Amino acid sequence: MAYSSRGAGGRSTSRTGGRSNYSAPRGGGGNSAVPAVIAGVVILVVVVLAVVVLGKKDKPAPKPPPPPPTEQPAPVVVKKGPELGPRPNLPSDIIARAKAMMPRIRTASQQGTKLGDEAVKAKQAGDQDAWQTKLEEARMILKSGRDEWRAIEDEVAEFLDNNPSKGWDQDMLMDSFLKSESGEVGRLIDEPLSGMAKSGRGH
Questions:
Q1: Which residues are CB-contacts of 113 (< 8 A; sequence separation ≥ 6)?
Q2: Which pTM does this prediction carry?
Q3: Helix (H, G, I), strand (E, B) or coil at 167
């Protein structure tokens, strides 16, 4: 009886204790490995995302090229003339005397121009005395016509002094009332006088 009890007790104790002590470490080691793998994957994903995000911040998107400069049209400058007041009304008697003078102006121009041509011919012929004499006579006739017209211009200037208007001067008033006559005097008297002054003695 003593042998049977020892043998049964020894086997029972030995098997039960051996199995209990060996299986506990296996069960604990297997359960702790899974969270470690998951944690590693999570950390790896976070690191990859951080690299991607930081990489995008370090390399900003390129700016679009600026549009080509457009040529601006040059500003249009409008020149304004001087402001004018009302036109002074030139007296009718001055206008009438100026128009009545024109036949004498034309006659003086014809006579003076004819003598001027004769003076040129005398110069070409070598006759210095005839050249100077005829040239002087031509100039005197033309100057007489010029003096008559200058008297009209002086009257216009005096009238404008007594009747001033903003922006108006003598030439503008002459052009307004006696433009045709003024142009004819310049062509018939002033131009021949200027030519004679250049070819002969002074004014």
A1: 138, 192
A2: 0.58
A3: coil
